Amino acid sequence: MEVRMKRIVAALAFGLGATLLAGAAQAQGTLNSIKQKGYISCGSNPGLAGFGVPDAQGRWTGLDVDFCRALSAAIFNDVTKVRFIPLSAKDRFTALQSGEVDILSRNTTWSMSRDTTLGLDFPAVNFYDGQGFMVKKKLGVASAKQLDGASVCTQQGTTTELNLADYFRANKLKYEVVAFASADETFKAYDAGRCDAFTTDASGLYAERLRASAPDDNIVLPEIISKEPLGPAVRQGDAQWADIVRWTHYAMLNAEEAGITQANVDQMVKSTDNPDVKRILGTEGKYGTDLGLTNDWAYRIIKLVGNYGEVFEKNVGQGSPLKIQRGLNALWSKGGLQYGPPIR
């Protein structure tokens, strides 16, 4: 019996070790795997206007969608080498952990527990957000502190649900939670009158209001009750892939700060004497090869996708139906939090 038990323990240990090694090998080879299969698998939100949503023809648009296209541009010089995988909030982390997707680019909050217990890394924040509330005007509510006794629709398995509980407890308010598995179910329940208020990230409130049966009958309350730094996530253990994701965002920020746009990037790459611009566009130094890419990786991103400001304005800013102000997502030089470390 003792010998048999030792064999079982040894077999289990071997199996666990093999699994860990396989996971490490998978993580270490993300860029090579992407190049071999010829596309990036991008875990996406299947229905959040401005961030990730396919149209009737299956064409995806959104801020997070364009981030995956920027990675495709950097790697392949082609924005079409992406397969968007629609993921619910409940399934998103499992899909990334299992290797079903190479990156999660899906309005996901970077929190300590997610960073330390899920085997994931959050290389950058591409949208600073905060949780808020939406109510129907007829409710006669002007502040979240007037929601004592209200029923609140929220999505299961999100930080939203936890923040909701914290806010009402801290303000000694009573409430009834009405939770649903998907964002679509949650908003439809609110729109149908099954709850008094709807809560999610403020950006999501403006996006979802566009889908309401009567958008103008709804208002977003002024309170922001949480910090929601949203950004892409990758598996831990692959520093190269995390660096590519991180510096793709920083390259887009640095391009905006330097005044490099889709419209002028070809002119800038030929005529500029500015050393910062030269390093960004790859005509000076070997910063791209240090990432495992070509030296014109950032030029490709700007040429094919745009700088951060262009992508923001098109998808969620004044050039979009959402018309969200830059606010915290303005460049640091314009009063915001978006700050790209130097490429040098």
Automatic annotation (TrEMBL):
Q: Name one Pfam family in it.
A: SBP_bac_3
Q: Which residues form the Solute-binding protein family 3/N-terminal domain?
A: 39-268
Give an example GO biological process. amino acid transport
Signal as UniProt keyword: yes
Q: Tell me the first and last residues of the signal peptide.
A: 1-27
Query: Keywords for this entry?
Result: Signal, Transport
Q: Which SMART domains match?
A: PBPb
Keyword hit for Secreted: no
Q: Which family does it belong to?
A: Belongs to the bacterial solute-binding protein 3 family.
- PANTHER family in the record, alphabetically? AMINO ACID ABC TRANSPORTER PERMEASE, AMINO-ACID ABC TRANSPORTER-BINDING PROTEIN YHDW-RELATED
Q: What is this protein called?
A: Amino acid ABC transporter substrate-binding protein
Q: Which organism is it from?
A: Methylobacterium aquaticum
Phylogenetic placement of the source organism: Bacteria, Pseudomonadati, Pseudomonadota, Alphaproteobacteria, Hyphomicrobiales
Q: Name the gene for this chain.
A: hisJ
